[in-house]
Design goal:
The protein is mainly α and about 1450 residues long. The protein has 70 helices and two strands.
Length: about 1450
């Protein structure tokens, strides 16, 4: 067996193995199959001939097709040749492949040329051959038969052969002696020479090509036919030609005619361009060629005449004939590579068509220039701007979004950069709202749906720095809104300004697979596993930031910063992108911190501890220099949580860098002036965030002298002459925020020390290094600053800057006095005197200043709730990428604009809340603020407003809620203090008490996550306070009783509480307000942990604060239907679990009292605070109150519950409430009201015992205007209900007309009505209301005069037949009943089973019908054929006996 060669084998070994293989005759492991090479033209292969015909080959007569092979010569190497194993001697093969010069020369064999003809060159009489110039080859520029080009050398040989054949063709033309001899010669010239001159003259057939004719002379036969046709045309007049042409057109298929015309146009694309209208002028080359062909006898004049005649004839025959396009440029024969005309490409050299003008109703595709500006459709821009291109609309300048997407994937880097930069500009302008009024739809949403995110992510991987930078800029334009960041920076120094909501998309409902009871808990996927299982597209569609995380954005940005080291604008864009990602959520911030080497690179390169000054401003590279955007990134990361802040300061070394940045003045930082102020401002903000967690307080002690020095220069820096006043103001506000949080942290030192001592080993926060003694000395300095700024309000030039910083001073003073009252060193007497002095010298003058009063006039216009224009809905917001919608925020009224009174009033209200808590005697001095006209007007507008919730409004709603809460706290403090001290309440305060209560109810329903402490305080103080429900102690219940009394009504025996008993119920509810408050606070106990966390943040308990990132914005803290919370809670605990079968004794402890308190509170709100419940739809109220019947079997029978439910039912069935009640709309939390109604019917059949309250509840949805499904359920599946639904007509507070009008049109329901009446299932003694309803609808149906369908007529006749055979009193009632009308006052009494049953009769017309019926009965019968019962298929007459 042969072995494989080894690397150690020598050449002799390999040769020996080769010989053994060849002599053994064994088959080779690989076989070589030789495919024929098409270019060599093997016989029998059509492809070879095709390839050979396309090849530019010069053929010489008598030249053999293949050259004789040189056997000794080595074969030519080819890619197609492969190694072949042959049965030959190895030595011979080596000799064959020997390429040495001696071997080649020794094997030369002379070729036999005895039979080869010798062709001598033609004698020209010239010493040297004539040089062939390119201009002399125009006549030879013809195309090969297959459409390819021939070289000049090949065309020379072809022309030489044509000259040799010229004589024979001329002779044959002379022998024919026909009148068309000149034309024949020209056509022969066309067939042989193939010159452009002959083609232009039209001397060859346009349609007949001769293909398919047998024999080698197909071309000659074709030309003969063509000559005969030309001869016939020359012998005919123009009229005869037109007549024959019309005859042909009438006989031929129009599609065939169209095909011939298109074929003609394709054969001569240049016919219209090469001929002129004046005289068919020739060029010099054409003249030389015509002179050479003159002996052939070409008659150009006759030919021209015929062509002109044919064009005229064609124009007369049909106007739809395709006209040959006139090209913008006539290709000349001298032009290189223009022998084949491409009209589609030449069209781009023509003038652009005019763009579409204005006034069109059709929407046009948006086009943008390179700056992102939208180009109007009718704008005619010059072409030198570079905005015209070969797109779908070449006449319009600019690029569409689709074209920019295509251009961004170009292989040319300049085009990619241009497209990405343009997309970035479009995104920036879209976020600024510049397309809001001119474009339909959202540009941002459209781009995201088209895959912009993936396009930019792919572009970030570009190997060229220019493309990478453009991609970073575009991604920054997509994610970052500079105006949003500017607004957040502006509100940082406000009360809780550093706190923000995570920019998470709204939670979307996903398919929940956990509903399957067979699913094991262990096998259920976690949220993280589900997220990992999704594709990038699915994740990015719901959340852009999560999609970027999944596409590994952070490692790529780290690589760009660390390795590529781009230019300063790209670095700024990347840092802003990282900041936006950190705002997404706390988990996103954690991923940023966990990304390897990312934050280390940021800290090392852009927040260094030492640096050198740059010689050029702006610097060419920002590496090694502090950047404010890098410090801001650290601040946003620290805001996400206490642990993240500790990592920033301890692991990343932010503490040392803050010390370097804040120890010196901005002018000493070796940075550009504005950048130095921005860096120090962000450094103060970062430090303030850390101190708000109780961290980095040792740094305060270390650089305390530098802070004091900065504070002392505040007045000088904030003067109106300072050129960078805005930067100085922001820096000073950041410093005041730092001092405020340091004061709060220092105030917690004693409490933490006491907790550590009493903890006995339990975990508790350590006390901070800063104590109260470290911050006590700052109060006098800052109070002096506040007095100085108060004086500056009189100077118009310094008023704006003073109003900007005063709120921060007020917030600091609140923090100081709030923490002072908790210290051991607190001296009450001195503090009270100090507060009185502060009130008289600072606060009262501030409130009375005209600048503050003017500012308060903007209260309503700056409100987010009262003024809809203050916050516009962001048209470019995408669900997957929420934003704050702060575009153009400085140019419209709003809460964050400089002339907004909210920051000043919030700071003032915060300080007043602390002062009045310490010194209650000062409350009356601040009543002017609460009773001022701007505040009262603002509160009235807010009490009737309906806020909407979104990311663009939530961050501003928080600050408005702070002001409203502080105003309500001041009102409560004022009312409570004056009540306790027996001081008479000011009349205006009592007058507006109900307004304050209404505002508190509205505010409670819209408090956002993170404000749980405010909700708890409102519930504990204001909401259930009898002092704010002034109607309870000022004759309110009595007024309700008088208003509900009907003095003109005859006394009726009522078996249930009437309307006038609501007053007594209200009196009882007012006395039970403390119990009601306790009930609701108990049912909100699940919010205790959130309340404690929110309390720590609001009260400045910094060491206990876990995060300054608020919970996810999923909606308000409390549901809108929170007044029904005890009922819903009881139903969820008892009704759903046991199907409503529990008795009252089996319900949870205190359930009856909780339901009673809930109903009392609902009754009070319905009567006196109806506006507070208008956010709850009436159908939701009805559905929530239905829980009374579904949660227990006998709870509704309890006397307090039944009395209160009757009162609520009477209120809900008032005319205005019934008109607004729409049961066709699904209540919140339910799929449909029909499902709830079916549950009510089942419960009624089971436990009602004929209770009339429950019966009224069941009858309410059976009104005619509501869905037929519920009436079908009563008369179908739950027909047993009719035996116990004994609610009399006088006790039903709903007019009977709402049940009977309009007439019923549902045939299935009418059949059920009729069956219930006929079978005595429905009796007036059992169900009076539905008995009247069924009688009314059946009577209206059988006596209806309206045209009905065949099915309705048939049903009507069947009912009449059955009525005819009835023998009881039901027959009379069906025939004589008249539908009750709203204005009818006549009554008819029918004896039914010994009981009096009253029916309302109709007006005079219906009364006449009744009298006419009586006359018919007296005569012995009644004809019903004229009562709408007759039809073509059924006409009967029923006679009723007297």
């Amino acid at each position: 067996m042969l072995r494989r060669p080894k690397p150690t084998d020598s050449e002799a070994d390999i040769l020996r193995e080769q010989n053994q293989f060849l002599t053994s005759g064994a088959p080779s492991a690989a076989s070589v199959v030789r495919h024929p090479v098409k270019r060599r033209g093997e016989a029998g292969k059509d492809g070879g001939h095709r390839e050979e015909s396309q090849k530019d080959v010069v053929t010489i007569e008598d030249l053999p097709d293949e050259l004789p092979s040189l056997t000794p010569a080595p074969p030519k190497k080819s890619k197609a040749t492969r190694v072949a194993f042959e049965d030959e001697d190895a030595e011979e093969r080596l000799d064959t492949h020997d390429h040495h010069l001696t071997a080649v020369l020794s094997r030369i064999v002379e070729r036999d040329t005895s039979s080869v003809p010798v062709s001598l060159p033609a004698f020209t009489g010239m010493a040297f051959p004539k040089v062939l110039h390119r201009s002399q080859t125009t006549g030879l520029m013809t195309l090969s038969s297959n459409g390819g080009r021939k070289s000049i050398f090949s065309r020379q040989f072809a022309a030489q052969r044509q000259k040799e054949a010229k004589t024979a063709l001329t002779c044959s033309g002379e022998e024919s002696q026909t009148p068309a001899a000149p034309a024949e010669k020209t056509l022969s010239c066309e067939s042989n020479m193939e010159t452009d001159q002959c083609e232009a003259a039209g001397d060859r057939p346009r349609l007949v090509s001769g293909q398919g004719l047998p024999g080698p002379n197909s071309t000659v036969e074709t030309m003969r036919i063509h000559r005969e046709n030309r001869a016939n045309l020359q012998g005919m007049s123009q009229s005869e030609i037109v007549e024959e042409q019309k005859k042909l057109l009438s006989q031929l298929d129009p599609r065939l005619v169209e095909f011939v015309r298109s074929r003609t146009a394709q054969s001569f694309p240049l016919s219209a361009s090469t001929s002129t209208t004046s005289g068919d002028k020739r060029s010099e080359n054409d003249q030389s060629e015509s002179s050479e062909s003159k002996p052939l006898g070409v008659s150009t004049s006759a030919q021209k005449t015929q062509e002109v005649q044919m064009d005229e004839e064609d124009g007369q025959l049909s106007s739809s004939r395709p006209v040959t396009k006139v090209l913008p440029v006539n290709p000349q024969k001298e032009w290189v590579h223009m022998d084949k005309v491409e009209s589609e490409k030449l069209e781009w050299m023509s003038d652009l068509p005019a763009p579409r003008r204005k006034g069109t109703e059709k929407a046009m595709q948006a086009r943008f220039d390179f700056a992102g500006t939208l180009i109007p459709p009718a704008e005619d821009l010059p072409t030198h701007l570079g905005l015209h291109h070969h797109g779908e609309e070449p006449e319009r300048a600019g690029y569409s979004l689709q074209e920019l997407f295509l251009l961004s994937r170009s292989q040319i880097i300049q085009q990619r950069c241009l497209a990405l930069s343009t997309l970035a500009n479009i995104l920036s302008k879209a976020r600024a709202g510049q397309y809001r009024s001119v474009l339909t739809g959202s540009v941002l949403s459209t781009l995201l749906d088209a895959g912009l995110l993936f396009l930019l992510r792919f572009a970030l991987d570009d190997g060229v720095e220019g493309g990478m930078s453009a991609a970073v800029h575009a991604l920054n334009a997509l994610l970052v809104c500079s105006e949003d960041e500017e607004c957040l920076d502006t509100t940082f120094s406000w009360f809780r300004g550093m706190v923000s909501f995570p920019l998470l998309p709204s939670a979307q409902d996903e398919e929940d697979d956990e509903d399957d009871p067979c699913t094991d808990e262990i096998l259920k996927e976690t949220a993280k596993e589900k997220e990992e299982r999704k594709s990038d597209q699915e994740v990015a569609t719901k959340d852009v930031v999560k999609g970027l995380f999944k596409m590994k954005l952070l490692p790529r940005l780290r690589y760009i910063l660390e390795v590529v080291r781009p230019s300063p604008p790209v670095v700024e864009d990347i840092l802003e992108i990282l900041t936006r990602i950190a705002r997404h959520s706390s988990s996103s911030a954690t991923q940023l911190l966990d990304c390897p080497r990312l934050m280390g690179t940021v800290m090392t390169e852009f927040v260094p501890t030492s640096w050198t000054a740059s010689s050029v401003f702006p610097p060419q590279s920002v590496y090694g220099l502090p950047l404010h955007s890098a410090v801001k990134l650290l601040r946003v990361l620290a805001t996400s949580g206490r642990h993240a802040c500790a990592r920033v300061f301890n692991s990343l070394g932010a503490r040392e860098r803050l010390s370097c940045l804040l120890s010196a003045e901005p002018s000493e930082l070796l940075l550009e002036s504005s950048e130095a102020f921005r860096v120090t401002t962000e450094a103060y903000r970062l430090w303030a965030v850390a101190t708000a967690y109780g961290q980095a307080c040792q740094l305060f002690i270390d650089i305390y002298p530098a802070l004091v020095r900065t504070l002392q220069s505040a007045h000088r820096l904030l003067s109106s002459s300072e050129p960078q006043l805005h930067l100085h103001t922001q820096r000073h506000l950041a410093l005041l925020s730092l001092l405020t949080h340091v004061t709060h942290t220092a105030g917690c030192h004693q409490e933490l020390e006491a907790d550590m001592i009493s903890s006995q080993g339990e975990e508790c926060p350590p006390p901070p290094p800063v104590t109260w003694s470290h911050v006590t000395g700052l109060q006098a300095l800052l109070l002096g600053h506040l007095k100085g700024f108060l004086k500056r309000l009189d100077a118009p030039a310094e008023r704006d800057s003073s109003l900007a910083v005063i709120p921060a001073y007020l917030i600091y003073l609140e923090a100081y006095y709030h923490q002072l009252s908790r210290q051991r060193c607190f001296k009450p007497v001195e503090t009270l005197q100090e507060l009185e002095l502060l009130t008289s010298e600072v606060l009262l003058p501030l409130m009375a200043h005209f600048a503050v009063k003017d500012l308060m006039k903007n209260l309503k216009s700056s409100s987010v709730v009262c003024n809809v224009e203050s916050v516009h809905r962001d048209p470019e917001s995408a669900p997957a990428l929420p934003g704050l919608a702060c575009s153009r925020w400085r140019t419209r009224p709003g809460l964050a604009v400089p002339d907004s009174p909210f920051p000043l009033l919030t700071g003032l209200g915060l300080l007043l809340e602390t002062i009045t808590r310490i010194h209650k005697g000062l409350c009356s001095k601040f009543s002017g603020l609460l009773l001022s006209e701007p505040v009262i007007g603002y509160l009235r507008s807010y009490s009737v407003a309906s806020p909407t919730l979104s990311h663009s409004r939530a961050w501003l709603l928080r600050h408005e809620h702070h002001l409203l809460y502080l105003l309500l706290r001041l009102a409560h403090r004022l009312v409570y203090t004056l009540t306790v001290t027996t001081v008479p309440l000011e009349p205006k305060v009592a007058l507006y008490a109900s307004l304050y209560h209404q505002v508190a109810l509205v505010l409670l329903s819209w408090l956002l996550p993170g404000s749980e402490f405010l909700a708890h305080e409102l519930l504990s103080t204001t909401i259930f306070s009898k002092d704010f429900i002034s109607e309870g102690h000022s004759g309110g219940p009595e007024a309700v009783e008088l208003g509900e009394l009907k003095l003109n009504e005859e006394p009726v025996n009522h078996t249930s509480p009437s309307l006038h008993t609501v007053g007594a119920l209200l009196r009882e509810a007012c006395t039970e307000l403390p119990s009601i408050r306790g009930c609701f606070l108990t049912h909100l106990a699940h919010l205790d942990s959130s309340v404690l966390s929110s309390r720590d943040s609001y009260l400045g308990r910094n060491p206990w604060v876990k995060s300054h990132l608020l919970p996810e914005l999923s909606g308000p803290i409390l549901p809108l239907d929170w007044p029904f919370l005890p009922l819903i809670s009881l139903y969820e605990r008892a009704g759903m679990a046991d199907g409503g079968g529990r008795a009252v004794e089996e319900l949870p402890h205190g359930a009856l009292q909780a339901v009673t308190n809930c109903l009392q509170w609902l009754l009070l709100l319905e009567v006196w605070r109806g506006d507070a419940l208008k956010v709850i739809p009436p159908v939701a109220k009805l559905a929530r109150l239905s829980c009374i019947f579904l949660c227990s079997s006998d709870l509704f029978l309890e006397r307090p519950v039944q009395r209160l439910t009757w009162g609520l039912f009477r209120l809900l069935t008032r005319t205005s409430c019934l008109d607004s009640l729409d049961l066709n709309v699904a209540p919140p939390g339910l799929a449909s009201f029909e499902d709830l109604y079916l549950a009510l019917l089942s419960q009624y059949e089971a436990v009602s015992l004929g209770d009339r309250l429950f019966g009224c509840w069941v009858l309410l949805p059976l009104q005619r205007r509501y869905s037929t499904t519920m009436r079908l359920a009563v008369f179908g599946e739950h027909v047993g209900t009719l035996r116990s639904l004994g609610v009399p007509l006088d006790q039903l507070s709903i007019p009977i007309e709402r049940f009977t009008s309009p007439p019923e049109d549902s045939l299935p329901l009418l059949h059920l009505y009729f069956r219930a009446l006929v079978t005595r299932t429905l009796k007036p003694s059992w169900c009076p209301v539905l008995y009247v309803v069924a009688l009314s609808h059946i009577n209206s149906f059988i006596f209806s005069q309206d045209a009905a369908a065949q099915e309705g007529e048939t049903a009507r006749c069947r009912m009449l037949r059955k009525i005819y055979y009835l023998t009881d009193e039901c027959k009379l009632k069906l025939m004589d009943y008249k539908r009750p009308l709203c204005d009818g006052e006549f009554w008819e009494t029918c004896s039914t089973a010994g009981r009096a049953f009253t029916l309302r009769t109709g007006d005079s017309n219906t009364d006449r019908r009744r009298k006419g019926g009586e006359e018919e009965r007296r005569k012995g019968g009644r004809d019903l054929s004229s009562s709408g019962c007759s039809s073509s298929s059924c006409s009967i007459s029923i006679t009723v006996s007297a």
